[in-house]
Amino acid sequence: MKRVCTIGGGTGNFVVLRGLKHIIDLDISAIVSMADDGGSTGILRDELGVLPAGDARQCVVALSNSSRLMRNLMNYRFENGGLRGHSFGNLFLSALEKVTGSFEKAVEEVGKILNIRGKVLPVTTQQVRLKMVLKDRTVLEGEKEIYLSQEIDKGYKSIFLEPHPTANPQAIDAILNADLIVIGPGGLHTSLIANLLVEGVAEAVLKSKAVKVFVVNLMNRKGQTTNFKVSDYIKEISKFIGADVFDYILVNSELPPKELIEVYREEGDLVKNDMDDPRVVAIPMLGGLQKEDGNDLMKRNLIRHDSGKLAEALLKIVGKIEDLCCSFSI
């Protein structure tokens, strides 16, 4: 059984995991960032003192083999009243953390209820905040401020987690014992680098003998990765790992409809491949347009990878697809 370890946030991990769960003979571990402080998750963190549930919830739902009704329930957002904008799954995980006294236990129990394939592992079990100091000395406090900032592309001096956390031992074990490590897609600083800032994670990625794949985002985010090309992503992520460790770089080669690109022009631009490198695998991986959730307290990118195409590409990369039984009817 091949061991696959994904590292990222909620939305990016969701896309990867939703495809991988349909492949037999995979042992899946999803390592998820604990730096989220926006939307429903941020409110629950501040008011209840719980760990951020949103990214873990998305990973649990992605790996779930329960009914569509149960998956929809976990993702349901209240439309009005005092709970407007809150996800039921976030509330459920937060309540379970209070009852069990452990966020890890809460995620484990929700995993049992939703009959998930694999494990969802918080990268750390400590309360942390992601912070960034810009070159003009402005301090961005938290993932939400960094996510919404339009100034990062002018340069930043440092990015760090406060307080400096140690990694969840289970996450380190998953990285060291993996056959395949998948980093991305996801917010470069807010999801991917946020994981690597946890003490022990970057070192484990360096040390792991796994095949390492970087999945490049479909689109840049204006202000954070303005005009970034594939090489810029690799340089930035490698800086925090300590080396360019990637065996393969997975790039989408498909263009969204022109009118959709125009709609998103103010938000960001398409990531272009500027690398003439044998590690680059450029194939069509564009998924259908996602509907925007008007009740979500944070605006999310609606152009996403196709889960089935992405999962198939990952398996072809390591030359294992012919040995595995697959179903991509998602």
Could you explain the architecture of this structure?
The chain has 330 residues and is an alpha/beta fold. It has a single domain, classed as CofD-like domains (Rossmann fold). Helix content is 37%, strand content 16%. The chain contains 13 helices and ten strands. The protein has helices at residues 11-20, 39-48, 54-63, 68-75, 88-100, 103-113, 143-148, 169-176, 188-196, 201-207, 230-241, 258-263, 307-317; strands at residues 2-8, 26-32, 119-122, 129-134, 139-141, 156-162, 180-183, 211-215, 248-252, 280-283. The strands form two sheets. The chain has a seven-stranded parallel β-sheet with strand order 3-2-1-7-8-9-10, sandwiched between helices. A three-stranded antiparallel β-sheet has the order 5-4-6. It is globular and about 55 Å long. Residues 292-300 and 324-330 have low confidence and may be disordered.
Rg over alpha carbons = 18 Å
Q: Output the structural class.
A: alpha/beta
Number of separate strands: 10
**And the CATH topology?**
Rossmann fold
Strand order of the largest sheet: 3-2-1-7-8-9-10
Helix run count: 13
Give the CATH class.
Answer: Alpha Beta
Q: Tell me roughly what share of residues is in helical segments.
A: 25-40%
What is the name of the CATH architecture? 3-Layer(aba) Sandwich
SSE sequence, one letter per element: EHEHHHHHEEEHEHEHHEHEHEH
